Amino acid sequence: MNRIFLYSLLLLFVLLPVGASLRPALAAQDTAQIENGDAPADVAGVTPFPNLLLPAVPNADQFGLPLQAVQIGELQEEFIIINVYSWFCAPCQAEGPDLRELSELIGPGGTDGTVRIIGIAAGDDITLTKRFRDKHSLPYALFPDPSLALHGLMQSPPVPTFYIVRNTTDGPHLLATHIGAIRGKAKALYSEVLKLTEASED
Hints:
Blueprint: H1 3-22, H2 24-27, E1 53-54, E2 70-71, E3 79-85, H3 90-94, H4 96-106, E4 115-122, H5 126-136, E5 142-145, H6 149-153, E6 161-168, E7 171-179, H7 186-201
Parallel strand pairs: 3-4, 4-5
Antiparallel strand pairs: 1-2, 3-6, 6-7
């Protein structure tokens, strides 16, 4: 067995069983409907989301991001789409064109000033994140998470998972979760995100 195969097996056992325990009916599916986040709500009736510290990545400025590490809550956009994926995840690779389509719907560099998409690569180092972005021509920032530290703070979701997060004065809040690949569903997901942004204005 080569190193990549062994790494793939390790990642499979680390990611999928934990994620399946969170949403067993959806984790095995290729696509799933957006659902409200199911983390414990606080007293105000909102769902807090961890204010993740995203590591510094090369050429971050080309994505409109600082060159140093930055927290989710420090991003200028009010709404953040977080795609949790892995290089070794076949559905993640298959949805590459859909990720590109989603980012193009949002705007140049994956942001329109209000909504931004980012990727967090569970178990992947900076080399694999660059390889994934180059392979799928993704115009937005991908953040490596080789130790699975960020993945753990997000309750170890299966890959791929999408979180829709809103930055507020009280910190990031989780608006919705989508578990599964978005193959052929980029426009539908973007439409749902727009509905969430409009509902938040009410």
